[in-house]
Amino acid sequence: MSVEVPPSSKPLGLKRPRKRTWWYLLGGAVVIALGVGAYVKFFTHPAVNIPAGDYATVSYGNVVETISAAGTIQPLQSISLNFSGASGVLATVNASLGQHVQAGQVLATLNDSTDIPAVQSAQAGVAAAQATLLQDEAGATPQEIAVAQASVQKAQVALAGAEQQYKDQEAVDSNHASAQQAILNAENTVQQAQGTVASDQAAVSAAQVKLQQAQAAVSTSTVNSLPATITAAEAAVTAAQKQETADTTALSNDQKSLTLAQQTLTADQATLAQDQTLYGTLAGQYPADETAYQNAMNDYNSWHGYGSNPYSSEVSTTSQAASAAESAYNTIQSATTTVQNDQTAVQTATKNVQDDEATIQSAKAAVANDQAQLTSDQDQQASDQTNNPLSVSAAQVSLQQAQTTLANAESSYKSAEASLQATKNVEDNTTTQQQALDADQNNIASAKNGVTSAEASLAETEAVSTPAQIASAKASLQSAEAQLASAKVAQSDTVLTAPVSGVIVASNYLPGDTFSASSPVFVLDGSLKSDLQDNVQVSEADIAQVKPGEKVTVNAPSFPNATFHGTVLEVEPTPTVVNNVTEYTVLTSVNNSSGDLLPGMTTSVTIQTASASHVLMIPAVALQTVGTEEGVYIHPEFNSAKLKNNKKFTAAKKKLSGKFAQAAAKASSGVIFVPVTVGLFGSTSVQVTKGVYAGEKILLVDPASLKLPVSKGFHFGGGGGAGAHHGAFGGHGGGAAGGAGGGGAK
């Protein structure tokens, strides 16, 4: 009988044979050894082996930027010669038609009547700046200190004068209270006169009623018509007398106004004379002081150095001087305006008096005529009353008396009104005097400022110049020397010289003529055997880089082994369009001492537009573009250990996951893209101003074209980034932009 043991149970008292256990252990050891070997082999980066022709070393050298174009040798080199200015008057013409001239020979000159003074002025400015610098370095002289002390004394005298004028004006202003009282009295007089006039008008009305009653009792006869006639005549006489009285009163008032205006004019003229004595000299300096202040402010605002502004002291000094001069100038102008207004018032018052006198003469004539008519009527009435017992003479006498009293009252009323107005005019003049008093107070304040400014100037003169002041003086000297150099350049523009040797084939002006930019002064034929002209066609994209004086090299197909040299003469402003391409003609001078070049030959021309010596440069083919960035490819393993740890490699690797992901995707393992900043572009090399440094090795080809050694076969590691190219560098979590690692086999 047999007993079955369950698979999950061990047989009782039985052991698993040891031979099978050792086989298992041996098999695991083999697997582990193979794995370790695979890890060591496949997870160690292979040595980088890049062909010598695929890399270059960043180094220092010279970069020459050029443009290339085609040209044609011309049979004649006709050069239009003109001055740089738009127009001008020729002073001398030193060349004539057909004359042979040499390069650099003076052909004509312009009238430099303005340029010579400008140079002389600039030279004077340099001399003044030098003197100022020497003065600052040596300190103030006793004479300068004495002048500053005199300025202080002058300012003190002006202050004393202003204070005295203020005291005098105060004395005039003391009459203000009495003038106010006079106005009150005059107003009371006017009110009383108005009451008297009203009373007398009532009396006249009553007398007229009584006269009318007396006349009603008289029969309608010739006697009755005369009283009315006499009354009319009397009224005419009274009216004429009133007019004369009113005109006389107006004349009196206008004469008073004239007298007052003349007195005011005399006082203000005295004030003006005193102001001119005190401030005339200082006010005359106002434009110059203000200009000096503005110049100092311009210097102050245009300075962009470090530390304190060297023009601060000059701004402070000129500001105080300009303020004092402006105050003096305004004082004199105010006094002058017051005098002019007073003169106008005197003229107006004089005319009013003259008009009043003419009116009074006319009124007197009217009174005489009316009085004669009244006398005639009264004589007629007396004659009629001899035969008429019922006379109205008593009533007429009463009426006349009442009318006379009324006329006197009205005259008194007008006189009172005129007196009131005159008193008010005096009070108005007192207000003007108060304004003058206020102006004098301002003058005192201005004079005190003048004293303070003069004392500050004296202290500054006596003080020893600071290093900052000396530095400012040196800067002023440098500025003056720069202005002198600029003036000499402007003067040199008035001289016309021959750019090349040749023959004058056209001369269009004589001395004294005014030249125009549209017509050249000379036309020079420079087509000598040793100096030909090459007309070069340059595209619109490159023409901005071409300037007169730049070097050119010329090659002709007829002489492939010869190189000719020359310079750019000018760029013609009018373009030409060939096959929808805009081009400009550049005139160049080519040395043909060998005599090989002939008119009509086509040439290949290289114009040197810029150059830089001993600058960091790379081969032009190494420059790559990723997106909008220009840069180079670098393999850290290819450079030294020091370069592999450089910060820029770390930064570039970080960028591979973002901006430069495209570069990472096509790069071989470990290659990074480094952005650079470029300067000049040469034909084979490029200047680099930032991004790489001397001694660094860079790739000359696209990284994807490099055949770096990569082992095939089993490897540990995951898939993922750009660095997992061919699976060789996928370990350690993938490539430069790869993901997490994992197991697998290729």
Describe this structure in words.
It is a single chain. With 746 residues, this protein is an alpha+beta fold. Helix content is 52%, strand content 19%. The longest helix has 74 residues. The chain contains 12 helices and 22 strands.
Q: Spatial order of the strands in the main sheet?
A: 2-11-15-13-12-16
What is the total tally of β strands?
Answer: 22
Uncertain residue segments: 1-19, 34-46, 641-645, 656-668, 709-746
The computed structural class is alpha+beta
Between the first and last Cα atoms, what is the distance in angstroms? 57 Å
Main pleated sheet: 6 strands, antiparallel, barrel
Which characteristics define this entry?
elongated, 12 helices, 746 residues, disordered N terminus, alpha+beta, disordered C terminus, 6-stranded antiparallel beta barrel, single chain, 4-stranded antiparallel beta sheet
